[in-house]
Design brief:
5 strands, alpha/beta, globular, 5-stranded parallel beta sheet
Length: 137
C-alpha cells in the first residue's frame, strides 16, 4: 500500500517521533510510506486580522524553506517530502492519507479522494494549540 502521513513539521516532538516510528515500521513491512510536511503551515490557526501572526508564519516558512529536508534527530527510513502547502497540487495520490494534528485534519479533509482514504491519528486533545471549537470540529 502507498501510505502518506501529514505532519505540521519535523521538529523534535513526541508526536513526530510516533509518526516516524509508524512510518519506519510500515516501510519495513513492504509499504511505500511518505511523511509529508508543509513549508508554510496551515492558516487555520491564524485569524485574518492578526497581521503579526501572518508575518511570523510567513517568515517561519521562509526559514523552513532554507533548511535541509532531513530529520537530524531520528533515523527516518520512509520518504520525507517537503511541500509548499498541503493541497491537491503538491500531494501525491496514495491509498491511505493520515492527518496527525487537528489543523492537518482540516487540510486532509479538503484533499481529493485520490490522495487516499482519510484517517486522523489523534495523539492528544490539542486545545493548547488551537481554539477548542476548531479542535473539536
Amino acid at each position: 500500500m502507498k501510505i502518506s502521513f501529514i505532519l505540521p513539521g519535523i521538529g523534535i516532538s513526541g508526536g513526530a517521533r510516533v509518526v516516524f516510528e509508524y512510518a519506519n515500521n510500515l516501510k519495513s513491512r513492504g509499504h511505500e510510506v511518505s511523511v509529508i510536511y508543509p513549508i508554510f503551515g496551515s492558516l487555520y490557526m491564524i485569524k485574518w486580522y492578526n497581521l503579526k501572526k501572518i508575518i511570523r508564519t510567513f517568515l517561519f516558512g521562509l526559514n523552513r524553506l532554507r533548511k535541509n529536508n532531513k530529520v537530524k534527530w531520528f533515523n527516518l527510513e520512509a520518504k520525507l517530502v517537503k511541500v509548499p502547502i498541503i493541497s491537491n497540487l503538491f500531494i501525491e495520490d496514495s491509498d491511505i492519507i493520515v492527518a496527525t494534528r487537528w489543523d492537518t485534519a482540516y487540510d486532509v479533509y479538503e484533499l481529493r479522494k485520490t490522495k487516499g482514504e482519510k484517517f486522523y491519528l489523534i495523539q492528544g486533545y490539542e486545545i493548547w494549540d488551537g481554539s477548542k471549537y476548531m479542535v473539536d470540529n
